[in-house]
Amino acid sequence: MAGVSTESVAGIVAGRNPLEYLALSPYTVFLFQAVLIMFFCHILHYPLKKIQQPRVIAEVLAGIILGPTVMGRIPGFTETCFSPASKVGLTLVANIGIIFFLFIVGMEVDLGYIRKNARVALSVGFINMAIPFALGCGIARGLYNEYHNDNSTTISFTTYMVFIAVALCITAFPVLARILVELNLIGDRVGTIVLSAGIINDLVGWMLLALVVTLANADNGIHTLYILLLTAAWFVFLMYPVKIALHYYLKKFTNELATGQPSQMLMVIIIAMVFISSFYTDIIGVHPIFGAFMVGVLIPRDNGYVIRITEKLEDLVHLVMIPIYFAVAGLNVDLGELNRGIDWAYVVAVIALAMVGKVAGGFLAGMINGFRWRDSLAVGVLMSCKGIVEIVVLNVGLNAKIISTRVYSMFIVMALITTFSTTPLALWVYPPRCRNLTSKWSNVLSGLDEKEELLADTTTELSLEQLDRFSFSAVILLLRKIDSLSNLLLLFKDLEDSMNYKEAKAIHLREFTSRTSHLLEASTAGEADTLLNEREYADLVSILAIIEAFSSLLRTKLLTMSLLAPMKNYVMSVNDQVSAPLNLVLKSVAIASMVRTDAESPEVVANYRKLLDECACHVGVLLTAESQVSEKVRLLLLILDHDDRLCASDLLALHFVRQLARANTKIHVYVRLATGYNKQFEQQFDLYLEESAEDVDMRVSYYKEIDEIFSDSTAVKGVEKGLFVVTSDTMQNDSGEITMNALRDAFDVLVVRAAH
């Protein structure tokens, strides 16, 4: 048994200190460190995500708190929990994580996306880099003179200057893309340009960083040239022979590109390629992350192939390895070293130059390309995001001994502040109301505004006598969960024969998360080359598969798509699918989910209210009492809040009842008594209904309080399956009474609201 130490396997029972680092069992301390880091990351991220801040801020802050700045000041904490010897395991896992992360970042780079917006994207990308790069070169002289003696090795001013300039001009593409999705700007003109320019910025930034590392590692000019040539040769080798061979193998010997599903064998090949490429770039004197990035760029994008590969890798990488990497980055920060006035003066100067340079560069590039001033300013603000990529750049510079710990701490503070400020500044500069104005302004320039005026009158311009002229230009079925889907489809079937719409589509709404696969899917949504994949993906998503079958049975052309959106502002994503105020959005919600006592109930209510309040077109929300359709609706019950004046939503409710009267000829109208019995209204509505269904049986009742309706035996005793049609205002005023009675007596409620 020689070579085996009993001490390495002894536990706390034998008196061993579990936090003592032993080379024979390094994993013991590592497991404790990993859990501690992940715990702090999640605790810090919880409040930050409420204000739409990216996870990287929490991860770096966790490292700073656990490092010498805060908890490191507790006697014995650093020596016990993060001793220099124990950091070896953390550093190894962190570096493997960042290699995989850069591989995933490489897969996010869509060169085809750049080509579609090449002229504007190139100008915005390069101008947005040029101004902060120049400012970085300027401040580099002062930083070099003040801090270059902090390093144990001597770095030339040229290398130092280029690194500082790169650190100021870089844009964190992964964080930027997530912010664009969170703010619902992916499909916006500003978002499209920023995303394209961000890819260019990312590519150029990594090239410049590779140059800086090469300059730092090479001891003379000829070595630098050789390293650059070897790097370029490797990139060409990957992009042509390797990429062509990979495509040939996937098409000739597998069916993976057609299905978009990578096999286990392919995952082994791809991971091996990542490690080999990283090994090569490391041994020639360039950081291994560049090799991983190159492999990511060459992965095929057909049928969402990169999305499926990302799904297989991202959980372990983003939940374990990346938090450890950024926490280690935070552990290297010691704000206590910034103990002089000149240090904080440089911190302020670096933050100011980073923000001003990026915002000014984006603003200038936008104005040159004919953007409005607000759009141009939004481009600059969004491009100022630093985040993940900045931290990686700074770590590379610190490990290569280009910058000292003090300068590293300064730039970490700059990265945190610029990343933190991006979302609130973007919302301030480019709020949703201004995006609508920008869209309208563009439509006016192209003549689209006049075309929409000719579609039809809105309900705000209609009276009861004119309702026969009313129509919907398109119908959108908004699908979330399967529990109330059958009720919504039955309602659509009853309406489908009588509605003269031009287009109908079903959208499966899915919650956007921090997953990179969701980011890739969201950023490619709507592109021509992904439409086929969306239809194929419908077969994998049960809700869309049901809709496809339903559409086929009805012989209706119902377009289907899957839409990723953050739940807190999902209505903005829905509005992107709305082509005109005369569209109709239909959604179903189970009443049981609204009245449950668990934590989800308030969120369900808030989401359905948000749709009624913020949607840019007509809305109908079907509140279902039963998850499955037990019988066909036989009785329509309409609640109107007043008889002396009708608002737009009242007229929309009347229109719904008229259309449904073709299939349900028994109607009971309840009108809140305001000025007395209005026989003229009854006669008008009776004539209006007869145009739709001659044998309609209509009764009109008047009420003062809502509970009078539910005491009516014909409505609530379960004699007939009933559907109440109410306006959003009525529902808001009497929500509790209506939902509780609906749930008790098993009738559905259709809540309608006309376009504002």
Q: What is the distance, rounded to the nearest whole angstrom, between the alpha carbons of the first and last residues?
A: 82 Å
Strand order of the largest sheet: 3-2-1-4-5-10-9-6-7-8
Bin the helical content: 55-70%
- Level-1 CATH class name of the largest domain: Mainly Alpha
**Strand pairing plus helix content: what structural class?**
alpha/beta
Q: State the major sheet.
A: 10 strands, mixed
Number of helices: 34
How many β strands by DSSP? 10
How much is the radius of gyration in Å? Answer: 31 Å
**Average of per-residue pLDDT values:** 80
> In the residues, how many domains can be counted?
3
CATH names the topology of the largest domain as: Na+/H+ antiporter like fold
Report the uncertain regions. 437-462, 526-540, 713-719
Query: In what range is the share of β-strand residues?
Result: 5-15%
Q: Give the overall form.
A: elongated
Instruction: Please name the CATH architecture of the largest domain.
Output: Up-down Bundle
Would you write up a description of this structure?
This protein is α/β, with parallel strands linked by helices and 756 residues long. It folds into three domains: 20-432, Na+/H+ antiporter like fold; 470-625, Rossmann fold, CATH 3.40.50.620; 631-756, Rossmann fold, CATH 3.40.50. The protein is 62% helix and 9% strand. The chain has a ten-stranded mixed beta sheet with strand order 3-2-1-4-5-10-9-6-7-8, with helices on both faces. The longest helix has 32 residues, at 221-252. The protein is elongated, with a radius of gyration of 31 Å. The protein starts with 5 loop residues before the first helix and ends with a strand. Keywords: Ion transport, Membrane, Transmembrane, Transmembrane helix, Transport. Residues 36-427 form the Cation/H+ exchanger transmembrane domain. One of its GO terms (cellular component) is membrane. This is Cation/H+ exchanger transmembrane domain-containing protein. It is found in: Membrane.
